[in-house]
Amino acid sequence: ANAATNDVCPARGGYALYTGGQEQECTRRLSLMGDLRQAIERNELLLYCQPKVDIASRRVCGTEALVRWQHPVHGMLSTMEFIKLAENAGLITPLTHWMLDAVFSQSYAWHEAGLDRALSVNLSAHDLYDPMLVDRIQCLFSTWSVSPELIQFELTESALMQEPLVALEALTRLKKLGIRLFIDDFGTGYSSLSYLQKLPVDSIKIDQSFVMPMEANNDSAVIVRSTIELGHNLDLEVVAEGVDSQAVWNLLSAVECDVAQGYLISMPMPAEQFSDWENEWVRMNTAKLTVPGQ
Ligand code: C2E
Ligand code: MG
Ligand code: MG
Ligand code: MG
């Protein structure tokens, strides 16, 4: 890349390198960044959520909050892509603030409708270094009078490893509010076990790259099994993400994995559809349990 290209397109934070069509790609990203800034300001993002189900009882035990961006021209954009873009463009803070507002308001609405379902919010590494984040969260709890067990946070192993001491301090402050914390994408971040043990977390989410192939690939199955054992030995709840087949569910059930999340149960859906989905899930699973002879 020449200097001019670098100016408009800083490849920070391990951003994917590109060779062909560089300028076009940079122009696209720059224009998307401007659009994202506006989308946040104009409230054009969407709150989606995906259920988490307790494997032994088949009960819904929570949902993950996932942001979506329906671009006026390009349609629904890949979340993975625009989160990276937001991280590199310094837009994560406003995005996280938008998400927190959306999640608290949804949690309040569900509570009013008689549904108390935990929502877990993904935080980026950058959020952990925002000294105002915990104050903002505390303020949202009192504004909406939402109880602390209904809002949870997910942090990837790699976000926690960027500045381990800062991360530990932020997590400790969140934990003091009574919030449940998850380590996301577990197994992909090369963190040391002694560091993990010091973190005030409640759950680990085994990354989908280990869960999805576990039926066909024995190495993945071994990794999943030993992670479950490790988690349980450390008194942590273990969630498997990317559960997209009955075969994988059965394997996880056999090794006493606690919670499953994935397309087998449901794709992420607009948050306002969640309570209908849950009613249907309960109906289906109650029917299954009462089939004679099963
Ligand atoms: P994640 O937190 O690990 O979320 C799980 C991702 O896996 C979601 O993708 C979900 O749709 C997808 N997924 C779940 N089950 C299955 C399955 O069975 N099969 C397949 N193929 N995929 C499955 P999504 O929503 O595109 O999000 C991607 C990543 O973007 C998330 O990974 C998270 O790291 C990040 N993200 C999403 N929303 C937010 C947000 O509000 N803030 C921040 N900071 N990051 C977010
Ligand atoms: Mg997550
Ligand atoms: Mg994950
Ligand atoms: Mg992931």
UniProtKB/TrEMBL annotation:
Residues 29-282 form the EAL domain. It comes from the Bacteria. This is Bifunctional diguanylate cyclase/phosphodiesterase. The chain holds residues 359 to 652 of 652 of the full protein.
